[in-house]
Amino acid sequence: MVCSCCDFESSADRQFTSQKAAKELQSYRQGRLGPTTRLLRDSVVDAGLNQGSLLDIGGGVGALAFELLSRGMSSALVMDASAAYVAAASEEAQRQGGRAQVLRGDFVQTSQAVPPADLVSLDRVVCCYPQYEPLLDQALSHAQHGVALSYPCDRWYVRAAVWFDNVKRARKSGFRMFVHPPRRIQAAIERAGFVLVRRRFTLMWTMDVYVRVGVTD
Fold first, then answer.
1. How far, CA to CA in Å, does 211 sit from each of 163, 196, 217?
2. Distance linking the first and last C-alpha atoms of the chain
3. Helix pair 83-95, 18-29: axis angle to 10 deg
4. Is the pTM of this model over 0.85?
5. Domain extent at residue 197
6. Cβ(92)–Cβ(28) under 8 Å?
7. Which one of 88, 107, 149, 171 has the fewest CB atoms closer than 10 angstroms to its CB?
8. Backbone phi, then psi, for 161, in 5-degree steps?
9. How many domains does the chain have?
């Protein structure tokens, strides 16, 4: 983990700027979704987890949350460390009628103040933490029925691409990405009492949906 919540939020602000937030929000409003968001959305729906409350950690402009709200979720809490993304998500939440609440913060540092939810989502978030275990532990403890997440595939060309991107970002923002071992991620989630029900791939990313053991439709 980074040294403090303020350090993480500062680097997130430098990396996830108002220009990037505006571009992503415009793309969402024009009906364009990133592949991980689209595949997670579809996998959640296929698994029957698109009902009840959603906690979207590192939710960016809120695209996944808004998509799931339009497909059955009753409420959503979107959290992000970037002030620009929080502002963009708040703007879109208001435009869509206020069913989504948007908060700023590093979830690992603020999780005790966040209520549990039926579904917890982490779209391209695990890769933002050098030590992903505390993030997963807190997220899983908040997930009452299921968890959906995307993370980089552990392949040589993915590691090379992430290394190159980190070099480019080093002087501008100091923000880094990490490729964590998929087997360890899965083992941590299974130890918390979840079973894998959906898995999808792109060349760069893995999209997983887990259901808590013992939970039925």
1. 33, 7, 10
2. 36
3. 30
4. yes
5. 5-212
6. yes
7. 171
8. -65, -40
9. 1
